[in-house]
Amino acid sequence: MHLEIITPETKIFVGEAQSVQLPGLDGSFQVLNNHAPIISGLTAGTLKVELESAFEADEKTSKLIQVDSNPMTIRVTIKGGVMELLNNNVIVLAE
Length: 95
What we know:
Elements: E1 2-6, E2 11-24, E3 27-32, E4 38-42, E5 45-51, E6 65-67, E7 73-78, E8 81-86, E9 89-94
Parallel strand pairs: 1-9
Antiparallel strand pairs: 1-2, 2-3, 2-5, 4-8, 5-7, 6-7, 8-9
């Protein structure tokens, strides 16, 4: 599925993901490929993203992205926001 993580200042991440774990208002939840459409508020916490391919950081990579020991997994800490999943497109509008 296609994932975009956006803040008011910049796009933090754009790419393909297998799954995304998010800090929802009522607790952590995960979305996978072909998940039913959903809109949810997000609280402060960490997004855990399982990628389709290994993450390669460069000079344009946001400092908010933390790469696990497994380069197929990244984490992004947010202060809150909202997410939408529709037709395998996930958009996270984060603070």
